[in-house]
6-phospho-beta-glucosidase
Amino acid sequence: MEKQQFKSDFLWGGATAANQLEGAYNRDGKGLSVADAMPGGKQRFPILESETFDWTIDDNTYIYPNHRGIDHYDRFKEDIALFAEMGFKCYRFSIAWTRIFPNGDETTPNEAGLKFYDDLIDECLKHSIEPVITISHYEMPLHLAKTYGGWKNRQLIDFYETFASTVLTRFGKKVTYWMTFNEINSAFHFPALSQGLVKSNGGGDYQNIFQAWHNQFVASSKAVKIAHEVNPAIQIGCMIIYATTYSIDANPTNQVATLIQNQEFNYFCTDVQVRGEYPAYTKRTYKKYGVDEQALEITKEDLALLKAYPVDYIGFSYYMSSAVNETMTVEETDVVTGNLLGGVRNPFLEASEWGWQIDPDGLRIALNELYNRYEKPLFIVENGLGAIDTVEEDGQINDDYRIDYLRRHIESMGEAVADGVDLMGYTPWGCIDLVSASTGEMSKRYGFVYVDLDDEGNGTLNRSKKKSFDWYKKVIATNGTDLN
């Protein structure tokens, strides 16, 4: 391993999302979001994928952990102080759209919501922590999903533009780093989270998914335009899931399948948002998924906007790699789960308790693939290990498994920097325990800070430091040179 010094202004920090930690889902004028309608438990995704799910909240049948989160809305000063104690240079969080526009289609913002984020941003700055804000992170207004049909409706471009303009104008002089949509490519496998599309409102039809993506691309470019007009110093990026993808063997059939999966999942959205135009393989992708290109609502003005306002950097999540097998019979035991992208089991990798395959070398590959393709700065804005943590009798939480996971990924980051990759920063996911997006569980923990709350909502909500807290503090203090 070649030791490589990270940049002196490298952005070490952590990442969260409003809908997974704030709670206070109906306070101070906040409206309901799609996240508020997602039940908790391991059946969350199967429920959302059912034919009958229509975004109705059913308190008699399900629990909704997002409604309470970890009460960050009332405890954010305590939480930011803990991040400051670790030495965070930045903190990635999101703005809940429904705190600003409760239904999403209003023209006048909710001042109480704006004030909350003013206070949160000021608290970060007081501790010399740079805010990194995701404008929309899996929490579009429920009204826009139910009444307008989600992002397949072109009207959402205007609603998002109003939202983005409001927050960029309000906070753009204080906040330099922004992202437009969280994991925008996730809709390829699960459009409910980012597009508000379930089967009952068109989520089972790729025509709708690709139309929704186009509408989001246009909305993203409008946000980039607004951001640069508000403050030319703003850096505003896209954000995708990246899963380094391997063929299961050297069979050319599997190699071609890997190429196609990379194009469809890892590159399609970034090709548009970074290069400012649809890639050459788009027509073939449309044909494969039964998309009628002529029926898509795409104007010349849209395409000119995409070209004129690409993003400044690429933010991405990296948790695992994926293996592709098109030629051999796959037993059920050989299928793995992951961050909205499965695949077949890679015999060379171990997996987390939730079946996500752990591949630090894959992060080095991801960084090189992305940087060599786009030559834009990269920002790892999610990475981490979801695990069950045990509180010992003396109160200690010895999460050496998390330290090992993060250490190996940071080592791979250093290797990529030595390869010549321009890496802006690193914000591990769930720097404080929060509600899981995929299952609504608290038991799937990622944080350096433990929150006393279980899957049924029982607990004191008290915060305590895990062993990884002091380890990460040392990593930041030494700018990534001491990982022991």
